[in-house]
Amino acid sequence: MALPDRARVVIVGGGVIGTSLAYHLAHESVQDIVLVERDRLTSGTTWHAAGLMTCFGTTSETLTGIRLYSRELFRRLEAETGLSTGFRPVGLVEAVGDDDRLEEYRRVAAYQRRLGLDVEEIGVREMAELFPLASMDGLVAGFHVPGDGRVNPVDLTMSLARGARMLGVRIIEGISVGDVVTRRDGALPRVTGVRTTAGDVECEVVVNCTGMWARQLGERHGVVIPNQAAEHYYLITDRLDGIDPDGPVFEDPGRYGYYREEGGGLLVGLFEPEAAAWRPEGIPDNFSFGTLPPDWERVGPALETAMSRVPVTFDVGVRTFFCGPESFTPDRLPAVGEAPELRGYFVAAGLNSVGVLSSGGLGRVLAHWIATGRPDVDISAIDVARFQPHQLRPDYRRDRVTEVLGTTYAAHTPGAELRSGRGMFVSPVLDEMVAAGAWLRDVSGWESADWYAGDGEVAELMPSWGRQPWFAHWEAEHRAVREAVGLTDMSFMGGLAVTGPDAGAVLSRLSAGSVDGEEGRITYTQWLGPDGGIEADLTVTKRSNEDFLVVVSDTARGHALAWLRRGLGDADVRVEDVTQRLGQLNVQGPRSRDLLALLADADLSDEAFPFRAARTITVAGVEVLCVRITYVGELGYELHVPGERAAEVWRALRARGTAYGLRPVGLRALGSLRLEKAYRDWGHDIDNTDTVGSAGLGFAVDLGHEFIGRDAVVAEQVSPRSDRLVQVLLTDPEPLMFGAEVMLRDGVAVGDVRSASYGWTLGGAVGLASVDTGLPGEPVTQEWLDAGTWEVDVAGVRVPATVSLRPLHDPTSSRVRG
Question: Which of 16, 174, 493, 611 has the greatest count of CB atoms below 10 A from its CB?
Answer without folding.
Answer: 16
